[in-house]
Design a protein that fits this description.
With about 80 residues, the protein is mainly alpha-helical. It has three helices and no strands.
């Protein structure tokens, strides 16, 4: 199941934490408040862009493909 705008809860908070740890961004650090608001959606879209997703897939929805890319990015990135 994908996480989308207006979702909330522990899965959203985990996503926010993971995006903050992913590094490079032009956006402000995400507030880890468990609310999938506009800034979290923008963070997901930016991550999808940086990963080279085709434009139609840069939709701000956090589904299985984005999850796999974020997991691979996290494990392959050097520590801060």
């Amino acid at each position: 199941m994908a996480l989308v705008y207006s979702n909330n809860g522990p899965a959203v908070k985990s996503l926010q934490t993971r995006l903050n740890a992913a590094g490079r961004t032009r956006l402000p650090r995400l507030k880890e408040d468990a609310d999938y608001g506009s800034l979290t959606m923008a963070g997901v879209m930016e991550f999808q862009f940086f990963c080279g997703f085709p434009t139609p897939q840069q939709d701000g929805k956090f589904g299985p493909l984005t999850d796999r890319k974020l997991a691979a990015h996290r494990t392959s990135s050097p520590p801060p």
